[in-house]
Write a structure and sequence with these properties.
The chain is of the alpha/beta class. The chain folds into two domains: 96 residues, Rossmann fold; 205 residues, Vaccinia Virus protein VP39 (Rossmann fold). The chain has 13 helices and 14 strands. A seven-stranded mixed β-sheet has the order 8-7-6-11-12-14-13, sandwiched between helices. The chain has a five-stranded parallel β-sheet with strand order 3-2-1-4-5, sandwiched between helices. A two-stranded antiparallel ribbon has the order 9-10.
């Protein structure tokens, strides 16, 4: 296993690296020039090193590398990183110096710009209206949702931009929200395009999440005691961007149906939000059992307005065929009102005709 020196381990940027390195089985030797390093206890070993401007810094660093058999150095301080880089280049020490966090961050933002341009290019193949969005806006949306756990791939996120851009005004409804990655994405798009308010529906209950049509090992994944935490995590993820445009109902899609008809929804976390009663985009990603998906579509799809979108996630799913069977049945029975359909990242996108 690798042994890594983190210097200075006292910096805030050091702690995430320490946690990640130890989770991968690496031995972490922390070091700083402070007498009391707040992060020392997170390291396997810790030692004091003189400041980089002290005459004995090079010898002290060399001895530390030899004593602990260090093969890599993580240095989150720009100035210290430059000093160590020079020492390695001049042959003063032999070690692998990991990338500076600053350089990694710059590269990450450059990559966000490229990803946003790629997403918009795909979105514009679905609707030219997506061209009214700025790449910087999409980059900011990606930056926000990246840390949120979820399985919506980049192509699907781009397709959602295109779908929303060509959708009429109306409510955006999501059934099955989990940590809120796609809900946050839909909220950001709906705000950017002024489509309408976003409503998420999810009971966050183990007994509702178990997918009995799937193999036993898939069923077991839903039977944990983590659902309350996931529900709270979703609230945390949406609170900063809700701005009166997002709310949720913690219940099944069937239970939520009569409340939707009231024209508004209230929650302690997000307050009261009005609803139009007409759905511009319906994203179904709840329980994937055939009966569950069929019930969600039966109850909620009739509320789609002409030109609206129905999106069935996991239409292509290796653990069951519920979404596929429902999607195929919907397409076969309503071919006269479907103007467009395609599959992206395993999700089936269906656009209804505008009725003209």
């Amino acid at each position: 296993m690798s042994t890594l020196l983190v210097f200075p381990s006292s910096m805030s940027d050091a702690l995430p690296f320490i946690d990640q390195a130890r989770s991968f089985g690496a031995t972490v030797v922390g070091a700083s020039s402070l007498k009391h390093d707040p992060n020392a206890s997170y390291c396997d070993f810790w030692l004091w090193l003189p400041g980089i401007n002290e005459p004995n810094f090079a010898d002290s660093l060399r001895n530390a590398l030899f004593t602990h058999s260090v093969d890599g150095i993580f240095c989150p301080n720009n100035v210290a990183h430059g000093v160590i880089e020079t020492m390695i280049r001049d042959g003063g020490i032999k070690a692998r110096l990991l990338d500076l966090p600053f350089h990694q961050e710059v590269a990450r933002y450059k990559n966000l710009e490229l990803r946003a341009e790629t997403a918009l290019s795909l979105a514009k193949t679905i609707s030219s209206e997506a061209g009214y969005l700025e790449p910087l806006d999409v980059a900011a949306w990606l930056h926000y949702v990246d840390p949120i756990m979820g399985q919506s791939g980049e192509a699907k996120l781009a397709a959602l931009i295109g779908a929303m851009a060509s959708a009429p005004r109306g409510d955006v409804v999501e059934i099955g929200t989990f940590f809120g990655k796609s809900a946050a994405w839909l909220t950001l798009i709906a705000r950017g395009l002024d489509t309408g308010n976003v409503l998420a529906i999810d009971p966050w209950l183990s007994q509702e999440a178990i997918q009995y049509d799937a193999p036993l090992h898939v069923q077991c994944l839903s039977s944990g005691d983590y659902w309350e935490t996931v529900a709270q995590a979703c609230v945390m993820n949406l609170l900063p961007i809700a701005s009166g445009r997002f709310n949720f109902m913690r219940m099944t899609a069937a239970q939520a149906s009569p409340y939707y008809e009231s024209g508004s929804v209230h929650s302690s976390a997000f307050g009261t939000m009005s609803l139009s009663g007409q759905i511009a985009l319906l994203h179904i990603d709840g329980n994937h059992d055939y009966r569950a998906v069929a019930r969600d579509v039966e109850i909620w799809a009739p509320r789609l307005v002409p030109g609206g979108w129905l999106i069935l996630d996991d239409y292509c799913w290796p653990h069951g065929d519920g979404p596929r069977r429902v999607g195929d049945k919907f397409l076969a029975g309503r071919s006269n009102i479907v103007s467009q359909s395609f599959v992206v990242d395993g999700a089936l996108f269906i656009k209804l005709g505008d009725g003209k």
